[in-house]
Design goal:
By secondary structure, this protein is of the alpha+beta class. It has seven helices and twelve strands. Helix content is about 40%, strand content about 30%. The longest helix has 25 residues.
Length: about 280
């Protein structure tokens, strides 16, 4: 693979819903299924907590000491890195512009590989094209709420739900929360491509999110694997909590205080990414 996997619709202002629709959390564990021997538990490679509150989303990977804040009303991400005393921001417009540039360059590279025409070049072009044009078909088993998206280079298997599993949230609020989560997932897929050198282009995940939106589904587990022999196979498990805890709210206050305290060095996104990659 050229770039193997590294790994909200806003609530309408006049909408009145329980607090749980506006405030909820998602705890996610990502497993390396391909790296697990048969009959052993896959290794957890990422743990993250994503908190939705007051129109913003706070995503933290505690092992990294980094908080990514999604602000759709201001059309931007803000990243706060406490251990490095750094902060940066990236607008949606900058994200789309950078992605367009990267996609054009990749398509030109694919064309070069195809013009060479040898087996090695064609084999290198195929997974790149699959990232840009995944070519998914859709299969949905209503009895098990399982969505399958087989494609030319990758395939998804997603266990889903259409209904809330808790009395803490009603169906109307659940539908609003699902929209917020999937919008956040769209933009996070775009940001991850720009932030992490080994991330996939966002097109496969955005295609999955669109299928979930169309079918009014919320993902519980998401498995992604490539179609090559010995390729990656990852599984994300999501646990939804429809009420924030006191600690969740304290963490959000701390992050907002940290970003406005003037103690962090504000850098451009390109410099932040360079420091992240080089670990400097």
């Amino acid at each position: 693979m050229h770039r193997p996997l590294a790994l909200p619709l806003a609530l309408i202002a006049i909408f009145t819903a329980p607090a749980s629709a506006q405030e909820f959390g998602v705890y996610t564990r990502v497993f390396n299924v391909a790296g697990a021997a048969s009959k052993t538990t896959p290794e957890v490679i990422v743990r993250s907590l994503t908190l939705f509150r007051s129109g913003a989303v706070y995503d933290t990977i505690h092992s990294a000491g980094e908080v990514t804040i999604f602000e759709p009303s201001r059309r931007r991400f803000v990243i706060v890195n406490g251990p490095r005393r750094l902060t940066t921001e990236l607008s949606f417009e900058e994200i789309d512009k950078s992605l367009k540039k990267a996609e054009l360059a990749t398509r030109e590279y694919i064309a070069q590989l195809r013009r060479k025409g040898d087996a090695r070049s064609l084999a290198a072009a195929a997974p790149l094209l699959a990232q840009l044009d995944p070519g998914f078909s859709e299969q949905f088993d209503a009895s098990s709420a399982t969505l399958l998206l087989p494609g030319r280079g990758f395939r998804y298997r997603v266990n889903c739900t259409r209904t809330p599993s808790s009395a803490n949230i009603d169906r109307l609020a659940f539908n609003a929360a699902r929209g917020r989560y999937l919008e956040y997932a769209d933009w996070t897929a775009k940001l991850n491509y720009l932030l992490h050198p080994r991330a996939l282009f966002p097109a496969p995940r955005i295609a999955l999110n669109q299928a979930l939106k169309t079918r009014k589904l919320l993902p519980l587990t998401v498995e992604l694997r490539d179609n090559s022999s010995g390729g990656f196979h990852l599984r994300a498990e999501h646990q939804y909590h429809w009420k924030l805890t006191g600690k969740d709210r304290d963490d959000i206050r701390h992050w907002n205080s940290l970003r406005t305290a003037g103690t962090l060095r504000r850098v451009k996104f390109a410099e932040y990414r360079r420091r992240l990659v080089t670990r400097r």
